[in-house]
Amino acid sequence: KEMTVYEKFIIGMLTNFGNMTLDKIHNTLKMFCAEPSYDKSLQQLQSFLSGLVSDEKLEMRDGLYLLKK
Asked: Cα separation of 26 and 44, whole Å?
């Protein structure tokens, strides 16, 4: 639930940069999210992204996350 604040950042990154791996999303959030600061683990992010896939907001294909069309 506390991860929902990052959903807009993630959607924005995928819109601007295209498909991204879990590591790339994680590292980009660590670099650019100052308020609130991003201090989550890779596993927490993966779990959150899996929820977004279940909610049909994102797709996961060949190790890449992409926006659902």
From this structure: 10
The mean pLDDT value for 20-31 works out to 97
Enter the tokens of residue 48. Answer: 């959150």
Domain map of the chain by residue range? 2-67
| % of the chain beyond a pLDDT of 70 | 99
If you search the block for the tokens 């992010």, which residue do you land on?
45
**CATH architecture of residue range(s) 2-67:** Orthogonal Bundle (1.10)
Q: Nearest-CA neighbor of 28 among 43, 11, 52?
A: 11
pLDDT in tens, 43-57: 999 999 999 999 999
Residue 45: Cβ-neighbour burial (10 angstroms; 0-12, 13-18, 19+): buried
Angstrom CA distances, 41 to 20, 29, 34, 47, 65, stand at 17, 11, 16, 10, 17
